[in-house]
Automatic annotation (TrEMBL), chain B:
The chain crosses the membrane at residues 27-47, 54-73, 85-105, 140-164, 197-218. It comes from Deinococcus indicus. InterPro entries: CidB/LrgB (IPR007300). Keywords: Hydrolase, Membrane, Transmembrane, Transmembrane helix. PANTHER family: PLASTIDAL GLYCOLATE_GLYCERATE TRANSLOCATOR 1, CHLOROPLASTIC, PUTATIVE SEROTONIN TRANSPORTER. It comes from the Bacteria. GO terms for cellular component: membrane. GO terms for molecular function: hydrolase activity. Its main location: membrane. Pfam families: LrgB. It is found in: Membrane. It is a multi-pass membrane protein. This is Murein hydrolase transporter LrgB.
C-alpha cells in the first residue's frame, strides 16, 4: 500500500487530477448502475457519494487520489447547476403564476430551514477544545 | 460550443461580481443564470438547443456530487459525534418544507400541475425528476422548481439563519442542505468546510426522506 502511495505522490498535479476525476466518475457510474439494477428512485450520484464515502472508510480508495479533483469540482459546483436553473425558460408562458410559485417556495424554504436550524442548534452537543479526550 | 462558452464566462463574471459587490444577491449561479437566459431569449434559442451545447457541464455534475463524500470523510469524527442534531434537524427541516409546500399550494389555489411539482422542491432536482411519475407532476417543471428552490434558498437562507441567531456551522449547513440541496450546498461551502459538509448531509437526507414520503403517499 505504501508503494502505491509513493507512486501516486510522484504524479504531477494534472495527472493526479485526472486520476481523481476518473475515480469520481467511476463511482458516479457505479451509483447509476446500482440504482438501475435495484430500481431505486434515488439519483445515481447521491448513491455514488455514499459508496465513495464507504470506500474511503474501508481504505479501498485513498483520499490523496481524489482530493484535488474533488476540491476542484466542488469549487465550481455552482456552475454545474446553471444548465438546470436556466430551465425556467421552458415555463415562461406560465406568466403571473410564477409569482405564486415563488411565494410558496420561498415560504417553505424559510419555514423548513428555520425549523432545521433552530432544532439542530439545540441538539448539537457542546464540543470542548478540539484536543479534548 | 458558443453557449458553453457563454455559460463559463457568465459564471466567471458572476464570481467577479460576488467579489466586487459583496451582496447576498450577487450569487454566481444567479448572475450566470440571468445572463445566459437573457442571451438565449435575445437570440431566440430554444432551451433544448442550449442543453445540448452545455452537455459537458451536466456530465460533470454527477462526479461533483460524488465528490461531496470527500468533506464528509474528512470531518467524519465530528459528524459522527453530532449525528443526532444532523439527522433530526435535517429530517424535520425537509418534512416541514414539504408540508409547507403542500399546504400553501392548496391554500393559495396553485394549479394542480405546479402544486404537485412543488411537493418535491425540497429534494435535489434528479430526485424531483425521478419522483415525477409518482406525484404526477410534469417532470421538467418538477426539476425546474427544485433547482430554483435551491437557488432561492442559497440567496435568502444564510440571512434568515443569521437573523434567527443560528451561528453554529453545522446547524447552518444542515438547515441549508435540508431544503436547498445542490445550489444551497455550493453556497454553504462558501461559509467553510463544516457548513458545506453539514449541507451535503442535509441534501442526502432530503433525497432519502422525500423519496420515502412520496413512495408512501403514492401507495
Amino acid at each position: 500500500m505504501s508503494g502505491a502511495a509513493s507512486v501516486t505522490a510522484r504524479l504531477n498535479a494534472p495527472a493526479r487530477f485526472l486520476l481523481g476525476l476518473g475515480v469520481l466518475m467511476a463511482f458516479a457510474a457505479l451509483g447509476q448502475a446500482l440504482v438501475g439494477a435495484l430500481h431505486l428512485p434515488l439519483p445515481g450520484s447521491v448513491v455514488g457519494m455514499a459508496l465513495l464515502w464507504a470506500a474511503l472508510g474501508a481504505g479501498v480508495v485513498r483520499l490523496h487520489w481524489i482530493a484535488d479533483a474533488a476540491d476542484g469540482l466542488l469549487g465550481i459546483l455552482g456552475l454545474l447547476f446553471v444548465p438546470a436553473t436556466v430551465g425556467f425558460l421552458q415555463f415562461l408562458s406560465a406568466g403571473a403564476a410564477w409569482g405564486l410559485w415563488l411565494l410558496v417556495m420561498t415560504a417553505a424554504l424559510l419555514l423548513g430551514a428555520g425549523a432545521a436550524g433552530l432544532l439542530a442548534s439545540r441538539l448539537l452537543r457542546p464540543e470542548g477544545t478540539p484536543e479534548r479526550p | 460550443m458558443i453557449w458553453l462558452t457563454v455559460t463559463l464566462l457568465a459564471f466567471a463574471a458572476g464570481v467577479l461580481g460576488q467579489l466586487r459587490l459583496r451582496s447576498p444577491l450577487a450569487n454566481p449561479t444567479l448572475i450566470a443564470t440571468l445572463l445566459v437566459a437573457a442571451g438565449l431569449l435575445a437570440g431566440g434559442v430554444p432551451y433544448d438547443t442550449y442543453l445540448r451545447d452545455v452537455q459537458p457541464l451536466t456530465t460533470l455534475l454527477a462526479p461533483a456530487v460524488v465528490a461531496l463524500a470527500v468533506p464528509l470523510y474528512r470531518l467524519r469524527a465530528l459528524l459522527a459525534r453530532q449525528w443526532r442534531a444532523l439527522l433530526i434537524g435535517g429530517l424535520s427541516g425537509t418534512l416541514t418544507a414539504v408540508a409547507a409546500d403542500a399546504g400553501l399550494a392548496q391554500l393559495l389555489r396553485v394549479s394542480p400541475d405546479a402544486a404537485r411539482a412543488l411537493l418535491t422542491a425540497p429534494a435535489t432536482s434528479p430526485v424531483a425528476l425521478q419522483l415525477a411519475p409518482f406525484t404526477q407532476a410534469p417532470p421538467a417543471l418538477a426539476a425546474t422548481l427544485a433547482v430554483l428552490s435551491g437557488l432561492i434558498g442559497a440567496l435568502i437562507l444564510p440571512a434568515l439563519l443569521t437573523a434567527l441567531r443560528v451561528t453554529h456551522p453545522l446547524a447552518r449547513g444542515i438547515a441549508i442542505g435540508a431544503v436547498a440541496h445542490g445550489v444551497g450546498t455550493a453556497r454553504a461551502r462558501e461559509e467553510g468546510e463544516h457548513t458545506g459538509a453539514a449541507s451535503s448531509i442535509g441534501m442526502g437526507l432530503a433525497a432519502l426522506s422525500v423519496t420515502l414520503l412520496v413512495a408512501l403517499l403514492a401507495q
